[in-house]
Amino acid sequence: MKKLIIIALIALTAFSACKNKTELDSNGMPQTLTIAVVQAEGIDEIKKVREQIRDYLQEKLKMPVELIYSNDYTGVIEALRANKAHMADMQPFAYVIASRTLKLNPLVTLGNNGKPSTYKSVIISNAHGNIKTMDDVKARSKNLTLAFVEPASASGHLIPRAYLNSIGLNPDTAFKQTIFAGNHLTSVLSVKSGKVDIGCTTNLVFMLMTKAKMINDGDIRVLWTSDPIVSDPVVIKNEVNKDLQKRIQQAYLDMNKERPEILKAYVKIFIKDTTRRSYMVANDTLYNGLRKIAGSIKSLKAN
User: Fold this and answer.
1) Which residue among 28, 199, 219, 285 is least packed, with the fewest CB closer than 10 Å?
2) Average pLDDT of each block of 10 consecutive residues along the chain (303 residues)?
3) Per-residue CA distances from 143 to 123, 127, 211, 270 (Å)
């Protein structure tokens, strides 16, 4: 019996340590700063660079820093809601969704010559098929399968959904079937393999997959390209100690000069020109455009 009690106490202590790992003390300080990110399956370079950023932050902040990986943006939101993460590297629409119910402070975003970096949404088809233009999509929509990425994706859902609505194609009724692929890579590969007729993604992932030889130059046809979308914010929960928030923000800004090779390696995964890229201070108003688009779509049920 005594032995069982000891084992139980050890288990309880281990559980408590795990449980308290992300809890904040009375000053809003965590034992371990935990950052939630989406894991891009098949793109090992991204995880490698993120671990380098983690190491840099840990050294700079002089406290343990941990990354937790989710398969999708919704998982990142839930990690913040469930107090399993204090921070997140969030896709813009995921931030808009999360900020409806959580108090989040944007810290930084990637800049381009002092202005926020942008990317674009694209709608794609198989280059070897007979869907060559958006006019073809409109004419044949009832026989086509459409793949979004996931509900919390700006480039893979919100922006293309708004565009399709604007040309008279309600994604919920105009197509033979509308699905969520789960991530950008699956959306693109589903188009390539012929599992779906048209798919949505971002131009950055599209170029990244070409670079990684996941697709060839002649595999995919781009049917439509959106206006620029402001890049991802790094956000933190409001209840985290305000001084620590400032230190984290400054650490990202200092990375531009102190560890430029890390930032360059991260940017280079997606784009060729790394010379003008640097972290810059982000603010909530950068994402008001996405909020307006989301508010204009009555059928949108991402929450």
Assistant:
1) 285
2) 42 43 91 92 80 97 96 93 96 94 97 92 96 97 97 95 96 97 93 96 86 87 96 97 98 94 87 82 95 83 47
3) 17, 18, 32, 34
